[in-house]
Write a structure and sequence with these properties.
Blueprint: E1 4-10, E2 16-21, H1 24-33, E3 49-57, H2 59-70, H3 74-82
Antiparallel strand pairs: 1-2, 1-3
Length: 96
């Protein structure tokens, strides 16, 4: 089984972008390069910094965790980035 990760990237203006991947280092490099594989939202918003990543399990769990994080207000996302909020407390776990 492939391990999936949830990650958060901070843009130049302080916005937070959330995504999922099986390879955080590769995916972050793609976003930084700004090419066709970069998220359209992040193009032209650099410099970018990877501020959070955590292994979450399967693709299904990762997708649910991503959705849950995207629903949070920015204040809670900042708490997640700084460790004051744990991903496990907001994401719905799924038995694999």
């Amino acid at each position: 089984m492939t391990n999936w990760y949830l990650y958060i990237i901070r843009t130049r203006s302080g916005e937070l972008y959330t995504g999922i991947t099986t390879d955080v280092k590769r995916r972050f490099a793609e976003h930084k390069e700004g090419g066709v594989k970069a998220a359209r939202y992040l193009r032209g918003r650099g410099p970018l910094s990877l501020v959070f990543s955590q292994e979450v399990g399967s693709r299904s769990v990762a997708s649910k965790a991503e959705w849950a994080v995207k629903q949070l207000p920015k204040e809670d996302k900042e708490a997640l980035v700084t460790g004051r909020l744990l991903l496990e407390t907001i994401a719905v776990p799924e038995a694999d």
